Structures
1.
Amino acid sequence: MDYIVFDLEWNQSDTGEEENAALLPFEIIEIGAVKLNNDKSLSDRFEQLVRPQVYKKMHYVTQRLIRLQMEELEKGIPFQEAVSDFLDWCGEECVFCSWGPSDLTVLQRNMRYYHIPPLGRGPIAFYDVQKLFSLTYGNKKSRYSLEYAVDFLGIEKDIPFHRAYSDAYYTAKVFRAIRNEKVLGHMSYDVFSPPECKEKEIFVVFDDYAKYITREFNDKDEIIVDKEVMSSKCYLCHKNLKKKMRWFTPNGKHYYCLAECDKHGLMKFKIRIRRSENDKLYAVKTMKYIGTEEADKVKEKKEHVRELRKLKRRQKHQNKDTV
């Protein structure tokens, strides 16, 4: 099995007025990658400029960041040819790795725009090296820049940053420095394509939390009445837990709940409702055992929601009295 450590550079609309801006918000203009074999030794490289077909003007932020001119991109090849070459180069037995969670989604969105078959049916497991670095060397929550990670690890900066190949090259160097097996167990999931049905939903247990990725639903009401989604089970002993705090939401997108297991302690449940590429909804549910300090933060969040609702009701009554 090979690790494909890749990076994309992309351009975007300067005005947002183009007809295809909504379908293709980011157009890939460069693909760079490093192939690592099973022991993480560098075995090959890939580098390709992509000729723009949608956005004919370089966005000023893109131009400042990667220092590419449109004239240079004209020497590239069409995306359809570039992605075909890239995927052939990757091979069938590989795991994708990237700095941050965006590249796989952008790649698949570009593929869909050109009617190219998707990378797979359902979520794709991959290594988010930015996340792995934070889990290993940071505070586990912050997301650091690639250059910060390179400097932190004392990696030689022998080529410039902010081009697709160079950023893939440095990401591979950081990835190779991460040896902690528990950290390497923290694979991420790209959900450009959510699970196709209930039987193919994702449920994975990491060393200190569990994650559940649902199939698509037509609307939010379907999600919040689904028994599996709204359940409060212990992911270790699989028992239904007694709720210490019922589900609540501060914004209609995130839902929280506290429950307690007699054997394992207090557990926090969090549901994030997301919109899929098919304009449907799916949920990502995380379950984690926590201490009293983190539980108090959840309680404070619920109290804040309660106070806001009281304030809105009060303002509504005042407005009625005024009328």
Note: The mean pLDDT is 93.
2.
Amino acid sequence: MQVSHSKPKEGAENEYETVVEDETLNSMVPLWKKNPAEVTEDEYKNFYTEKFYDYEAPLKTITQKSEGTATYNALLFIPSHVPFNYYTKEYEKGLELYSSGVMIMEKCPDLLPDYFGFVKGLVDSADLSLNISREMLQHDRQLKVMGKAIEKKIKSELSKMMESDRENYEKFFKAFGLQLKYGLYTDYGMHKDVLQDLVLFTSSNGEKLVSLKEYVDGMKEEQKAIYYAPGESVAKIAMLPQVEAVREKGYEVLYLTDDVDEFALKMLGKYADKEFKNVTTDALDIASEEEKKAVEEDNKSAEEMLKMMKDAIGDGVSAVKFTTTLKNHPVCLSSEGDLSVEMEKVLGKMPGAEGMAKANVTLEINRDHPIAETLKGLYNTDKEKLGTYAKILYAEARLIGGLSIDNPTEFADLVATLM
């Protein structure tokens, strides 16, 4: 724009002349179209906090410029905390969509998959018509191309953050990790290639969160599976007899404390050709061949006694058997099949689903614990007391597994009787 200025006249004192010059009053270049190297961190921060009404700076800023199949500029932000309404029906995911600097949609959901729905930002493309309708956008090929490219960019930036800025990545994961796990589970595991290397878990190797890749890289040479244990808290999981037995072998155990964790791993099936194994199921299989043979003989010789104990307990268990994998603990509960005890608890929380899903539960008795010999003695001398012991041991196993006792009064009376 031409602007007039009054300047001192060259070669004359106290005389001025009017000069007309071309001057840029306002570049009007949007922030997202500028070279990222020329934009400061504070400029991005101020843009984010003002535009998206956040009181904290973003955890990470992502810029993307694409030319070719789809031409666009994207400016994306990963928030440092969960929006107050993130896990409610009111929350709307989506990026602002511009066509050559003119906004055509405030929130375009098709540019983000649900598992990256926490991302804020905008996309500006000259390939889109200003007059395009919401219905036409849903079928627009360019939009789908942009969406896939943005998804890849977000994953790439999160992977880099995990490797080079672990502290901030763990801060991000504590805020939005649950959404990534739900992404693994939904759509029958279709998104596992995108998400499986982004999820973290607490493990038996300390408080540091570990990825599946880090777990596999640290596996012992003879270890055949990725072991995990679900539960209400890390402290309670660490006290499970089966966890202690696996750790005794020198194997790391993933501690699953979110309701979706076990469902997500079930949907994954394998990671790096290693199967996932719940240590609280009968598929644990960490005993030596010698131990397996010994416990098989014990179960066969005590078949009638174990059946009598099962009958005394009732429908609470499908079987009672001896085991060698409990170290110093007398009993535990294990589940058989795909539905674990913890999954039963999770499904039971759903409205109208209480009692619908039942795990196939076995009461396991440590063959090396003194209680095993006591039970064999009672079978020969006092079968009624054997039934009492069976009910008490079953109640104890439920408590160890974080389950409630169906009849606390009966349990207290049974203990008092033996005292």
Note: Residues 141-164 form the longest helix (24 residues).
3.
Amino acid sequence: MKKIEKRAIMCLLLACVLFVGTGVFTYRYFAYGDEWASYEGNRDLYSEGDLAKGSLYDINGSLLMKNSSEGMQYNDDYSTRCALMHITGDKDNNISTGANRAFINEMVGYDFVNGIYTLNNEGRDLTLTLDADVCAAAYDAMDGRKGTVGVYNYKTGQIICMVSSPTYDPADPPEINQYNEDQYDGVYINRFIDATFVPGSIFKLVTAAAAIETLDDAYSWEITCTGSVDYGHGDEVTDLAVHGTVDLKKALEVSCNCYFGQLAEKLGPGKLEEYVKKAGLSKSIDINGIDTAKSTFDFPDSGVSLAWTGIGQYHDMVNPCSMMVYMGAIANNGTAVMPYIIEPSSLVTNYFKKIPKVGTKTKDMIESSTASSLKDMMANNVENNYGSGNFPGLEICAKSGTAEVGNGNKPNAWFAGFLNDDAHPYAFIVLVENGGYGSEAAGSVANKVLQEAVN
């Protein structure tokens, strides 16, 4: 009798293990089946080690890249291929943000009813929010210079332009060697997503927001700029010109380093750090499963280092995508809409992996009244400094940046802002590495890209 009881208990235990194991397997099958199906050993998906199924299209239906048993096929236009190489990926799969690495599960299109089966046996068509023509215009405008261009709809979150340079034609990849390695330095990095750079004066918008929301005299406080501020021991903050008496609006217009350096001291390191976090710059952004690099900062207690921090120098390092989203927050009355790049209608879902929500808003990055003030100031920058005539037909609000990078190199040129236009609600970021002055080098790129996006 005791033997029967022991055997019964053992059977019950084994049944419990079987039941639990079956439950775990079933859950993992539904939740992770797409990852199992996309494993490189699946011969139904791969040909000679390369993904052989799945296609990418832009928002207008233009083919960007198609996987086949003969290899990757690309758009017919040279500029489009080069512009989107960091999204379509290359034949050697070197790009971490390339579709066959970043979007492989979506390209395969697995679901637990049909598996990887499709009627045409060519995988899934994935539609991106990108506009190939706008991206090609950005590539042409960069003219071989290193940097990045990003544009997104600050009302919906759709990224319409994401271009990183240097790049190359993925249909005819070059042989990179000691003779051309400088030309292709960092070519496998998506600068819009994976990199950070010294922001220079575009960071003054964050310092200005902190002042407006925490200082009673933010709008009336003035200094007399003599072109430099001496901090002793050979340390000083310098300007390219003597600006005379300036308040916040005028200081932002002429990008007065002396003013913003002293404003940073007046705010203190704690407030600067608080508003960097509030602006979302210290966090990574998830773009359909691709995480951006985090911006990084140091906040010295006082002195010339704190001054340069508030100006956008010292140890400030900003991710371009994060700064673009902050521009979107200013345009959108203080609240940012998070960016995405895959049209949800082209995604396959199941009960365990829902289609990501789009149009997701952040907490307020700045107060709506602060956003309104910054919007007016950025419009004033264009009208009275950069020149409205350089942006014909565009209701543009912007801030330029000329970021010193040291080692005898020319400064990085930035141009960041948005269109104050309900019909074309686009926020943008342009970086031209070693481009010189922001409004000249990066501003002209922004105009060409935005003209294509609007017209």
Note: The CA atoms of residues 273 and 308 lie 14 Å apart.
4.
Amino acid sequence: MVFVYQEVEVNFHFIGEPTERPTLILHGWGCDGEVFEPILSSFDRSFLTLDFPPFGKSGKIGEEWNIYTYASMVMSLCEHLKIKECDILAHSFGGRVAILIASLAPSFVRSLVLVDSAGLRPRVNLKRTFKVWQFKLLRRLNKDVRGFGSADYQKLDPVTRKAFVSVVSEDLKGYCPQIEAKTLIVFGQKDKDTPVYMAKKLNKLIKNSQLVVLKDGGHFSFLDCPMAFTKILDKFWEDIS
């Protein structure tokens, strides 16, 4: 199914019978709504998945998209579907969107699961700081900067690249204490993209939260440790029922 937001097509679908209080699945950057499906089959729930534009089967984003645009898009989709309350399961970039929604619309989010979530500014790293300084200097001198950034960053078109820079530049630390929903934070011990120190910081900032670290998990800890993750998630959802 397709929902149109700011002239951008957003692909979405339900897994299980549609309800007015589904579990909303928010995937990471560069993935799509299918990434959690191997896990979701273990649960008898109504899930609403979507593809964040421009990924999956959704359309290309417009100019000036940022993390607030993505959060507004999700809320508009839920309003369109007459969803008044939900549980949220979010990974990485999806965690950024979930943090915003849970903090700004607390009555909408009954529970929150943040898996290897982004959203906090990383610790100061001298090597990283130097590369950022070098990038800005070369760009100011109109030099070639195409060698900077990750492989994923290099693959992005200019509009999406601009949105990506805007998204990762936002520090959502100030929003976390506003979250009222019971929250489960699950991180992989071997996660290098969003290291465990970020999980511990989220745990301190979100008052009604618990933290579980999967020792064999990386940035996709729910796929690296599916049995352990499913067990933890099942207990969390059972406790809030």
Note: Residues 72 and 101 are 8 Å apart (CA to CA).
